Amino acid sequence: MKVTVIGAGMIGGAVAKALSEEGHEVVATRRNLEKARWLEEYGVKLERNNRKAAEWAEVVFLTVKPNKVGKVMREIEGAIGRKLLISLAAGIPISFLRKAAPMARIVRAMPNIAILVKESFTAYAVDGLSEEDVKIVEGLFSAFGRCLRVEEEHMDAITGLSGSGPAYVSVFLESMIYGGLKVGLPRDMARIAAAQTLLGTAKLLLESSEHPAEIRDMVITPGGTTIDGVFELEEGKIRTTVMKAIDASTKKSRILSTRLSP
Ligand SMILES: NC(=O)c1ccc[n+]([C@@H]2O[C@H](COP(=O)([O-])OP(=O)(O)OC[C@H]3O[C@@H](n4cnc5c(N)ncnc54)[C@H](OP(=O)(O)O)[C@@H]3O)[C@@H](O)[C@H]2O)c1
Questions:
Q1: Which CATH superfamily groups domain 2-156?
Q2: How far is the CA of 190 from the centre of ligand 1 (A)?
Q3: How far, in Å, is the centroid of ligand 1 from the Cα of 109?
């Protein structure tokens, strides 16, 4: 398909690269085009003019910061028509996009940065799409990793959990690596041991119907080594801390939508 990505920064660049690698024709825009030159290596064409890029496309991804969405929508107004408009901006409701693009087939989606390795979790809500359109959207999102259609009311919470999630998990990974260093492991060994452990545990969860507590209990031997580590984690209130992190990020996503100007 002909896809335009407006705002080829961190997430837009990942989207443009992933879709181009899947064989789509991709045009990406940003104001400072020099910073998007790396995308040309992957066959992505660059364009400065958002309106021109939107006119050319069949599908338009919106990947600018939430506070830039209104301005960009005004720029491309009239170029969207009935096209598929896919916004990845946190906290921007479909109703806001609908005002600027009354005829469009609108998708509000929240992926994460693991698009770069085709392992994103992308949740999406739709408005004005046929089942055929949904298949097209899922085809596009399959280039990012796993996707799931949800009701729009869940999008802020998804933003707080899996959109921001790679940041929380990175903090945990960094702590594990530091733990490895503390007990004398070489840096590279600690890094790979921590990352592969996280990957393996996530796979165990995804590929079975186990509750995480069951996986935890598979590792804990009574009186063994693991329970001493788990005891320390519990004393540090790790669960409350992670729950508070997701709650705070979700609330911020909700606040963003209340600060919108048309
Ligand atoms: N980062 C993530 O992990 C993540 C995950 C899920 C969703 N998101 C969402 O994705 C969006 C972008 O986040 P990000 O982290 O990728 O931010 P980012 O790296 O700052 O990317 C935004 C890009 O938009 C470009 N831009 C700004 N104004 C523009 C305009 N008028 N026309 C065209 N391009 C314009 C900027 O480049 P110039 O300054 O050169 O124009 C910038 O590269 C946000 O709405 C965020 O909520 C991000």
A1: NAD(P)-binding Rossmann-like Domain (3.40.50.720)
A2: 33
A3: 14
Please state which architecture CATH assigns to domain 165-255.
Orthogonal Bundle (1.10)
Query: Distance between CA atoms of 88 and 94, rounded to whole angstroms?
Result: 11
Please write the tens of the pLDDT for every residue from 205-248: 999 988 999 999 999 999 999 999 999 999 999 999 999 999 99
pLDDT per residue as tens digits for the range 136-186: 999 999 999 999 999 999 999 999 999 999 999 999 999 999 999 999 999
Query: Where in the chain are the domains?
Result: 2-156, 165-255
Binding-site residues, ligand 1, Cβ < 6 A: 6-7, 9-12, 29-32, 35, 50, 63-66, 68, 72, 88-90, 110-113, 163
